[in-house]
Design goal:
Layout lengths: L1 E3 H7 L6 H10 L3 E7 L5 E14 L2 E10 L6 E5 L9 E11 L3 E2 L3 E3 L2 E3 L1 E3 L16 E2 L9 H4 L5 E6 L10 H12 L21 E3 L7 E8 L9 H9 L7 H13 L4 E4 L7 E5 L5 E3 L5 E3 L5 E4 L4 E4 L3 E2 L12 E7 L2 H4 L2 H4 L5 H6 L8 H16 L2 E9 L9 E5 H8 L5 H10 L3 E4 L3 E5 L10 H12 L25 H10 L3 E2 L5 E2 L1 H7 L18 E2 L4 H12 L6 E12 L7 E12 L16 H13 L7 E5 L5 E11 L2 E9 L14 E6 H5 L15 E10 L4 H11 L4 E10 L8 E10 L8 H19 L2 E2 L2
Parallel strand pairs: 13-16, 27-30
Antiparallel strand pairs: 1-12, 2-12, 3-4, 3-6, 4-5, 6-7, 6-10, 6-11, 8-9, 14-22, 14-23, 15-22, 16-19, 17-18, 19-20, 20-21, 24-26, 25-26, 28-29, 30-31, 31-35, 32-33, 33-34, 34-35, 36-38, 36-39, 37-38
Helix pairs in contact: 1-4, 5-6, 6-10, 11-13, 12-13, 19-20
């Protein structure tokens, strides 16, 4: 909203400086976005009168004039403006004047004729970017007067960036009301005498959509002079608000809009057929707008129509066929209240944004229509003349917005603002804001003014009191809080630790969408009943993921297509599975997934590399288990999964509970995901490695460690992990280490058997172990393994 300081001060003129006024408006929540001068800097520009005006003897497009600027003699000026004429009052830059851009006026000769000055246009004075002809000053302007002072060009344009809830300030009246409240000064509204009704002409009004338009006023005005010029004072006020002058009728409706924030519209009365109908658009109904654009109206669009056709899009834009033109002599003037929801979004659907729609969709005062009508009528008659008919009104009482009644409690006001403001001051603030205020035992009972659509609840009133009281007047008080050391659950492993381990093992973290391609997900998890989105972004993002593998494998594919053959990615995120016992029927679980593919190491002259395999990923996963200080609670069991190679997959268990899977991607899935190489993946429940056993410190033995190696021949189907776990259970406290360091099948080992080479470390923390003790421990382990697994020692 642009407005001029001078126009605002005509309504309310607090004794504060310009800078203080701008700061005050901003601090009240009406942020000042920009401040601009109304004209460029110039000197020695005077009011002159054209005393003589004739054609230039040597140029068809120039005129030779004699101008009276109050000097002893008339001055000769050559002018090329078409609107230069005898008796016109003009802005004259005399010799020695300096115009915007440091342009100095000097004595000159144009086509053989002397020229001692220049007749200025608005653009040459920096008042506008474009102008047609020279500036025409009021006929009453005194000759020789300073144009800068005459037009009050020391004024400024203030551009306020209003929030959507403050539609009441989209007019000078609302802004003046705010400034008056902030400074506790009264507002002086302009006064006028309503135009006398001299006609009986009326146009019938039928509200067919009262919920969208509960109040519509119309008035007939006949015999206007559409050739009448808009007075300079109005043109200037419009210009300083960013509105270009069009013609007198349009300018007057725009002036009332800027003055009171209420849109108006004028129809050519002679183009109407029958009465006015306020209704929704009909099927396939079309309208040619004032700018010549033809639109097909939507069925939810409110229109103003006569008995035959649509005339305008209500509250947004007028129609060309019923618009005021140069030949118009009779008009029908409209002043209406349209419900915000009936206008909101409609303008954008037609690619429009108008001053009227901007105000109506935010809310216009529903009791302002008569006042706006009388003001527009008075201005029209005084400028254009005409005979005035009575106001015709159609009204639907049940659809007019009601003013909210709100209780404001003293206790809550003090608590939210942080200080106690004197009750009389609070009452004065609310009263000046236009509220109907009454005292109660707990505080105040408030009836909001009709123009404040944003006053609905108690907090709205508290905000109003705070901003009018002044945020700068509320002291800064540091909050009081007891400093208590937050307890830290050491048994909870931070996600950052997990990330650090994986990043240290050359992984990069990926973040993929929770929405995945249902077809690809079905190939990985044919048994999963995924949640399908009713309104997806696209078809390939229409299912909620049941695993993080889908997104990770697509990321691998994208990297490989960009010549990244060695890929190591991990991701943490939610998976979504249907569960009737969960909230909203969907169980959400935090998962950790990873994928590796390509060579184990980057290419290097001193390193012989190889493709990654199952055991490389398993080692990375075991590094995560070591964070839990309870790695023995995790185990791998050979199991099949629909997405994994049947001979290279395992279930991951903790304390007997399945928490995920690890394995090589099934060969049939590399093509659907456009993958090269052999990806290996794992996925586990993040919560299972987030909870850990607190590590306990033990003595470090200073006595020798004793290494013994055993090679057991067992059935080739036997899981080596089962043997290792069994040896840990029976080994006793002196068995401090165990390691499978070789698996062999071939010569010397019976067919259907395999040799498992296991290293044992025995040690005591209090003494050196005797050889016999060591031998006894080893014998115990050999006998127990032989009996349990039908194993024998390899020769």
């Amino acid at each position: 909203m642009k407005f001029s300081e001078a126009w605002l001060r005509e309504w309310v003129n607090p004794e504060i400086t310009r800078d203080a006024l701008i700061h005050q408006i901003t601090m009240a929540g009406l942020e000042v976005d920009e401040v601009l001068p109304v004209a460029g800097k110039f000197t020695k520009v005077l009011v002159g009168e054209v005393v003589e005006c004739g054609p230039h003897p040597n140029a068809d497009k120039l005129q030779v004039t004699k101008i009276n600027v109050g000097y002893d003699q008339l001055i000769d000026i050559v002018c090329g403006a078409k609107n230069c004429r005898l008796g016109l009052k003009v802005a004259v830059a005399v010799v020695g004047a300096v115009l915007p851009g440091d342009f100095e006026i000097k004595e000159a000769e144009l086509r053989g004729q002397p020229s001692s000055g220049m007749l200025c246009s608005e653009s040459e004075l920096g008042m506008s970017e474009n102008s047609d002809g020279i500036l025409e000053l009021p006929s009453a302007a005194p000759v020789g007067a300073c144009v800068h002072k005459l037009l009050h060009l020391d004024d400024i344009i203030i551009d306020v960036d209003l929030t959507a809830n403050r539609a009441d300030c989209l007019g000078i009246a609302g802004l003046a009301r705010e400034v008056g409240v902030l400074n506790s000064v009264s507002v002086s509204e302009p006064t006028w005498e309503n135009a006398a009704v001299t006609l009986n002409d009326q146009v019938g009004i039928n509200l067919q959509a009262p919920a969208a338009c509960p109040r519509y006023l119309g008035r007939v005005i006949r015999g206007i002079n559409q050739q009448a010029k808009t007075p300079l004072w109005m043109v200037e006020k419009l210009r300083r608000c960013g509105v270009r002058s069009v013609d007198a009728v349009v300018d007057i409706t725009q002036y009332v809009l800027l003055e009171f924030g209420h849109p108006m519209h004028a129809f050519d009365l002679d183009k109407l057929e029958g009465g006015i109908e306020v209704r929704l658009a009909q099927v396939d109904e079309k309208l040619t707008l004032l700018d010549g654009k033809k639109v097909k109206l939507n069925s939810d669009t409110l229109v103003i129509a006569d008995s035959q056709k649509a005339l305008a899009i209500a509250g947004i834009f007028g129609g060309l066929d019923s618009g005021v033109s140069e030949g118009t002599t009779n008009i029908f003037l409209e002043s209406a209240f349209f419900a915000p929801l009936a206008i909101a979004g409609r303008a954008r659907s037609y690619g429009l944004h108008t001053d009227a729609s901007h105000r109506y969709e935010r809310g216009v005062d529903p009791v302002l229509q008569t006042k706006a009508m009388e003001r527009a009528t008075q201005l029209l008659v005084s400028i254009c003349g005409g005979e005035v008919g009575p106001i015709t009104e159609a009204y639907s009482d049940q659809h007019i917005p009601t003013q909210a009644t709100i209780t404001l409690r003293r206790s809550k006001l003090d608590r939210l603002i942080g200080i106690s403001i004197d009750s009389d001051r609070v009452t004065t603030i609310l009263t000046h804001l236009g509220c109907d205020v009454s005292l109660t035992s707990e505080g105040w009972k408030i009836i909001a003014p009709s123009y404040r659509f944003d006053m609905e609840i108690e907090e709205d009133l508290i905000e109003e009191v705070a901003r009018v009281y002044g945020y700068d007047n509320i002291p800064n008080v540091a909050p009081l809080a007891s400093l208590i050391m937050a307890s830290h659950n050491e048994a909870r492993l931070k996600l950052s630790k997990v990330r650090d381990v994986l990043v240290g093992r050359e992984y990069q973290e990926a973040i993929t969408y929770s929405f995945v391609d249902p077809d690809k997900q079905l190939k990985l998890h044919p048994e999963a009943d995924a949640l399908i989105l009713p309104h997806p972004i696209s078809k390939d993002m229409s299912a909620m993921r049941v695993s993080l593998w889908t997104g990770l494998l697509e990321s691998v594919s994208k990297n490989q297509k960009r010549q990244q053959s060695r890929v190591r990615l991990f991701e943490t995120g939610l998976r979504f599975t249907k569960d009737e016992n969960a909230e909203n029927g969907i169980r959400q679980e935090e998962m950790l997934s990873a994928v590796i593919v390509g060579d184990l190491n980057d290419e290097h002259w001193d390193i012989k590399t190889r493709p990654v395999d199952f055991f490389d990923l398993k080692a990375d996963l075991q590094a995560l288990f070591d964070l839990c200080a309870d790695a023995h609670s995790f185990e791998f069991k050979a199991e099949q999964h629909s997405a994994l190679h049947p001979g290279q997959s395992a279930g991951i268990y903790r304390n007997g509970k399945n928490i995920g899977y690890i394995g090589t991607l099934h060969p049939s899935l590399t093509k659907p995901f456009a993958l090269n190489g052999t990806p290996i993946v794992f996925e586990i429940e993040l919560a299972q490695i987030s909870s850990r056993k607190l590590p306990s410190a033990g003595d470090i033995s200073k006595y020798p460690a004793n290494h013994r190696d055993l090679a057991f021949v067992v059935d080739e189907q036997l899981n080596a992990g089962n043997i290792l776990k069994f040896i840990e259970e029976i080994g006793g406290t002196q068995l401090v280490g165990i390691n499978l360091f070789d698996v062999y099948q071939g010569q010397g080992v019976e067919k259907g058997k395999k040799s498992l080479a296991i290293g044992l470390i025995l040690q005591d923390t209090t003494r050196t172990l005797e050889e016999q003790e060591i031998a006894d421990n080893v014998t115990k382990i050999v006998e127990a393994v032989s009996n349990k697994f039908n194993a024998s020692l390899r020769d």
